[in-house]
Design goal:
Layout lengths: L1 H33 L11 E10 L2 E8 L11 E6 L2 H8 L16 H17 L1
Antiparallel strand pairs: 1-2, 2-3
Keywords: Coiled coil
Length: 126
């Protein structure tokens, strides 16, 4: 009788472990599918917009999401694309609390190199 009870418990435990694994896989797929580059009503609210980069006809922003749990100090980040500044502002307006400050456009690698060269030229001229 005790052996049968142990065997039944092992079987139940194995079934629960399998169910947990399936739920974890479903959660991972759901989270991957949930992240979209374009912002819509299902996109989490921003805590902060960290960087803004122009690429082609789009503006990309690195967004730090607001935590759903106020006790959680972890940071979740993602890139989102926008067609214009008005879309960025509309998304930023969804933040609770103080209004978000939109970042200036980051320099492209070519622009960074040009600034570095100009600085070197100024140093050598001095």
């Amino acid at each position: 009788m005790a052996k049968r009870s142990i065997d039944n418990s092992k079987q139940e435990l194995a079934e629960k472990d399998e169910a947990i694994q399936q739920l974890r896989e479903q959660l991972a797929k759901s989270q991957q599918a949930r992240h979209a580059w374009a912002v819509d009503a299902s996109t989490r609210d921003p805590r902060q917009l960290l960087h803004k980069v122009a690429h082609g006809n789009l503006l990309w922003c690195l967004v730090e999401y607001a935590n759903e749990n106020e006790l959680d100090d972890s940071k979740e980040l993602a890139w989102h694309c926008f067609r214009n500044e008005a879309e960025i502002q509309a998304y930023a307006n969804r933040a609770s609390g103080e209004p978000l400050t939109l970042p200036d456009l980051s320099l492209t690698p070519f622009e960074v190199e040009r600034v570095v060269r100009a600085r070197r030229n100024l140093r050598s001229a001095v």
